[in-house]
Amino acid sequence: MPNPSEFLWYIPNQIEGGHRGDVSDGDPTSLETLTSHALALEDHGWKGALIGTSWGRPDTFTVATALAARTKTFEPLIAIRPGYWRPANFASAAATLDQLTSGRVRINIVSGQDNLAAYGDSEGDQAHRYGRTKEFMRLVRRLWTETNVDFAGEHFQVAGSTVAPRITPRGDRLHPRLYFGGASEAAERVAATEADVQLFWGEPLDGVADRIARLKRLSRDLDRDLPPLEFGLRITTLVRDTTEQAWADAEAKVDEMAARQDKVDEHRRAKAVGQQRLLDLHARGEVLDDNLYTAPGRYGGGGAGTTWLVGSAADVAASLRKYRDLGITHFVLSDTPYLSEIRRQGDQLLPLLRDAPPAASGRLVRADQLA
Asked: Residue 152: phi, psi to the nearest 5?
């Protein structure tokens, strides 16, 4: 029986407002604003939200802790970086928050570019960076599940280390899930052996299928000693009441992006492998599969904003179900304005994606909603 799908949103965690065209009023970093998003997520059917990180943003772990204290079911997917944190310090902080929230903590390990010198960190080449990430993930998991841990790696060391409080096992959840992203060969080798969930950007179905197959092979070839790797999708979903309105709004948004800046070659330079894969998709066409819109990547769309799934709730649900058929069980969705889209997509999109049989709701469901 496949794992049930989980649906999370995104909290950008930016000092300045206007992220990806967000027009919400108020201070984006205030506790009131952030709490309104977290409470809306609870009220509209979402499991939680990914909280973004990089130097120059509010500290992600602190934001997650504050939001967890003001909510009851909201599960923060906390983005953190090896190097910004030492493994034992982080393992202790996460174990403490996990206990205080009765097991609501999720962790996204980030190894991409950042202003390392600003917080006293440094990294070598790609092999060094991912070697450090691999050690970090392995050691944190041991600190959560073992006592008196001794570890002497190339990058980290501990001796006789026991984290307190201890993580409370909850069913088959022995500790917070470790999410991870990256499309380079080095990143995929780390994911195959150390991650609980591999997150993909919004690539076409054939690209995601190829990467899932490759990661499963790597898991076997590298003798993964953890439960099977799970897979997730981080993507923008532009949902409107009708297909026609969705495409009209999507094209208008891209026109606004183009008006703000011409096609920027600088955006294509020095990108991570996964980001460059997204940027290159436009050469295959502006719309791939049924409704994967690649045009935003031409005008500054980055990360999950590079490609969008566009359409009515039924259109987008049908596309997300196709990703689920490939083995995706974790979905991190978003669109702007963030707060109003939490409500719209929670009310219109999520009911079409629930794992329970449609008949259980007592309502008739159209064939196109089951596609």
From this structure: -130, 90
